[in-house]
Amino acid sequence: SGLDTARVAQLVRLGGHIRRLSGMDLEEGVSTRLLIYAATLIKGGMPIARALEAAVIEPLTDDADVQLALRDLIATIYG
């Protein structure tokens, strides 16, 4: 079994928002591979915040300000 549609939609939305961020010091936008990795971690029982930290935030940047902005974006999407 996979993730429910709502969770997948949130990941897709998050990916779209990260890809549209301008002025951020990101080497590249979030890849589909990283989003699938996050989904795999979540499906395996990892809390969403930790999964997104490990699969999205940490691979994208080590800049503390950019990490904070990504966490804020995640908080906006995930509530």
What is the topological layout?
Layout: H1 5-20, H2 32-43, H3 48-60, H4 64-78
Helix pairs in contact: 1-2, 1-4, 2-3, 3-4
What this model shows, in words?
The chain has 79 residues and is an all-alpha fold. The chain has helices spanning 5-20, 32-43, 48-60, 64-78. The protein is globular and about 35 Å long. The model has no long low-confidence stretch (mean pLDDT 89).
Search tags:
79 residues; mainly alpha; 4 helices
Concise description?
With 79 residues, the chain is mostly helical.
**Contiguous runs where pLDDT drops below 50 for at least 5 residues:** none
Counting DSSP E segments of at least 2 residues, the number of strands comes to: 0
Radius of gyration: 12 Å
What integer is the average pLDDT?
A: 89
Shape: globular
Helix content: over 70%
| Largest sheet geometry | none
Strand percentage:
under 5%
Q: Give the SSE order as H and E letters.
A: HHHH
What class do helices, strands and sheet pairing give?
A: mainly alpha
| Oligomeric state of this protein | single chain
What is the number of helices? 4
Distance between the termini: 25 Å
